[in-house]
Amino acid sequence: MIHAASALPPALACRGLSHGYGQRAVIRALDLEVAAGEIVCLLGPSGCGKSTTLRLAAGLEDPWSGTIALGGRPVSGQGRSVPPEERRIGFLFQDFALFPHLTVLGNVAFGLRALPRPARRQRAGACLAMVGMADYAEAYPHTLSGGQQQRVALARALAPEPLLMLLDEPFSGLDSRLRRRIREETARVLRARDVAALMVTHDPEEALAMADRIALMEDGRIVQCAAPPLLYHQPATPFAARFLGDVTEITARTGADGRIETPLGSVPAPAGLDAGTAALVMVRPEAVLLHPAETAAAARGRVTAHRALGRLTELRIAIDGMAEPVLVHQDGDGSWAIGDGVALGLRSKGVFVFAQS
Ligand SMILES: Nc1ncnc2c1ncn2[C@@H]1O[C@H](COP(=O)(O)OP(=O)(O)OP(=O)(O)O)[C@@H](O)[C@H]1O
């Protein structure tokens, strides 16, 4: 649940953050906000500065410049440097390392030393129940599976009731099926507890599945911050379009009629792309319509590759005038075989046009 903007200050507000290592800047004038109760995924390629942003929010590093506030309380910048243990943040990292010499209950109770013993056990027990691990309270970590250990780590991080959870690639050590289940459970628990979270991932599918908003990072900056469907369907830059999913790329020029002719058909040029301007047209695989070869359509091609993706079939279609085959996703097992002739058209949704840089 995301609280009304006016009700509570943001769980995290970073303003104009810059940071680096040695002389090298890796975070550049970064603005980022996580509302109370919101799950934001920090998504981007390796080395773009995601973990550094998390470390700054955690107080493990002091920024070169800029400010950080947690729940409306300034914690970094302007001479402040509140240490990590006083920030009311919870951590969940890939190498979540439970304490091997403590029981599951002992692990969860560890961060609750300020509470009297009975209250500590009660809160720890309630947190274990929340992640479905109440029956394992007296077990030791080495007897648990990876997924169970991850659940205990989540309970341990949530027990002290943090204002903000910081998660750094927390599921990357799990196999794909388990990973999906634990990810859904984690999102459910965070939402049920109304805990805000900032989660680092380089996996677009993970961010699309978990986030209320995705902050897409490139080279130390947030290039777009939006709800998952918006980021996928209205990327602000070619980088964002490529990072969120497959695209076929076509370069062409805007015509005098304000349209761009491509081998797949004509698309309207957006404002600012005047006649003669070089354009980059990017087409998502699901934006291509396939028809029987004899249909009157904008383009004709031939199927060169065919791959079952479970719910979808991925096809590559060679078209005259295009260097690379067009990537197409069809629902179901597809009615096309390699070598088939097809007619093609474009939907408007899933086609993005940018000025060619
Ligand atoms: N302690 C450090 N000392 C020097 N350089 C560092 C240090 N930590 C990170 N870097 C560099 O800063 C840049 C950003 O690193 P960061 O770990 O924040 O990126 P990331 O987006 O989380 O990448 P990844 O997904 O690979 O972890 C990288 O080029 C990295 O090599």
TrEMBL record:
Keywords associated with the record: ATP-binding, Cell inner membrane, Cell membrane, Hydrolase, Ion transport, Iron, Iron transport, Membrane, Nucleotide-binding, Translocase, Transport
- Which EC class, in a word? hydrolase
Superkingdom of the source species: Bacteria
Protein transport keyword on record = no
Listed EC numbers: 3.6.3.25
GO MF? ABC-type ferric iron transporter activity; ATP binding; ATP hydrolysis activity
GO CC, any one term: ATP-binding cassette (ABC) transporter complex
List, alphabetically, the CDD domains matched: ABC_Carb_Solutes_like
Where do the ABC transporter domain residues begin and end?
12-244
Q: Name one GO biological process term.
A: quaternary ammonium group transport
Report if keyword Oxidoreductase is assigned. Answer: no
Record SMART domains: AAA (SM00382)
Pfam families named in the record: ABC_tran, TOBE_2
Checking SUPFAM superfamilies in the record gives: MOP-like, P-loop containing nucleoside triphosphate hydrolases
Q: InterPro entries from the entry?
A: AAA+_ATPase, ABC_SmlMolc_Importer, ABC_transporter-like_ATP-bd, ABC_transporter-like_CS, ABC_transpr_FbpC, Mo/tungstate-bd_C_term_dom, P-loop_NTPase, Transp-assoc_OB_typ2
Can you name this protein?
ABC transporter component
Q: Which organism is it from?
A: Rhodospirillum rubrum (strain ATCC 11170 / ATH 1.1.1 / DSM 467 / LMG 4362 / NCIMB 8255 / S1)
